[in-house]
Amino acid sequence: MHLVSDRTTSESADFQALVQSLDAYLTIVNGENHSFFNHYNQINNLKNCIVVYADGEPIGCGAMKVFDNETMEIKRMYVKENYRGKGVAKFILASLEQWAKEMGNKACVLETSKTMLDAVSLYKSFGYLRIPNYGQYIGVEVSICFKKIV
Questions:
Q1: How far apart, in whole angstroms, are the C-alpha atoms of residue 64 and residue 75?
Q2: What is the predicted pLDDT for the residue at 24?
Q3: Could you tell me which residues come within 8 angstroms of residue 25 by beta carbon, excluding any fewer than 6 positions away?
Q4: Dist. CA 125–CA 135, nearest whole Å
Q5: CA-CA-CA-CA torsion for 95, 90, 106, 146, nearest 10 degrees?
Q6: Helix, strand, or coil (residue 103)
Q7: pTM exceeds 0.85 for this model
Q8: What sign for the dihedral angle of Cα 35, 72, 144, 135?
């Protein structure tokens, strides 16, 4: 499978369609916590988004936004179900980290759910280390936050 990534913004129709699929998936995964998380997952004005294509089909996405003056926050990571386990998420994450470095950032942070074991495993395999929950995730039992020096 040949993967191609496109650096774009949240204005991308392909990015928006993938995020709709992500939100539908998270509604099931997060259950009663979905409305809390959904409030913080808006995609308005995201300037650093990636859409990954396989044979012209958009199959995954990720985004990042400024966290502080030397850190980007990874957001909206998603891979279509029939492409999971094939290295697409690794491709997206590596692409976002490279872009963050090119922008002069020194680190990336992110939040995921403790119940999303594949995501937790991915981030740990990339060298992300657990940090105390930050911002809106402080005190949220199901949240787990990570940081990596890039």
A1: 5
A2: 87
A3: 78
A4: 24
A5: 140
A6: coil
A7: yes
A8: negative
Integer CA distances (angstroms), 15 to 21, 103, 116, in order? 10, 21, 21
> How many CA within 13 A on the CB side of residue 145?
15
For residue 79, what are the β-bridge partners?
60
pLDDT in tens, the chain (150 residues): 899 999 999 999 999 999 999 988 887 766 665 454 544 555 678 999 999 999 999 999 999 999 999 999 999 999 999 999 999 999 999 999 999 999 999 999 999 999 889 999 999 999 999 999 999 999 999 899 999 999
Cβ atoms of 54 and 91 within 8 Å: the answer is no
Alpha carbons 92 and 62: distance in angstroms, whole number: 6
Domain spans in the chain, listed from the N-terminal domain onward: 3-149
CATH of domain 3-149: 3.40.630.30
Element of type H or E holding 59:
strand 57-68
Beta bridge partner(s), residue 58: 53
The Cα–Cα gap between 114 and 91 comes to: 22
Structure tokens at 68: 């502080």
